[in-house]
Specification:
two-stranded antiparallel ribbon
Length: 97
């Protein structure tokens, strides 16, 4: 989750959290806004079990994409300046093959 002034950007992980527990997402937002401590992580045995094969799958897909075209990789955690840089880098690659 990225909060920049009046903009909140949710990641895929945030959406997963919200689908399981709206309170967890809102508590995370409150933390980002400085209203509370970070909420405790929820133990998810299924997530832990599927993470490794999922990461291997993503690595295979990324490898294939790199062989086909330029790939812009965006850091998972970045500030507002990093957000702007990611948008610029992504747009500059649009349409190139």
């Amino acid at each position: 989750m990225i909060v920049d002034h009046d903009t909140v950007l949710l990641t895929a992980s945030d959406l997963t959290v919200a689908s399981n527990c709206e309170w967890q997402l809102l508590a995370s937002l409150d933390h980002e806004l400085g209203r509370r401590d970070r909420p405790p992580p929820e133990d998810d045995a299924m997530l832990a079990r599927t993470a490794e094969p999922g990461e291997r799958h993503e690595a295979r897909i990324l490898k294939g994409l790199r062989q086909q075209c330029p790939v812009v990789e965006i850091e998972k955690l970045f500030d507002a300046a990093g957000q702007v840089a990611a948008i610029v880098a992504t747009r500059s690659q649009g349409g190139r093959r």
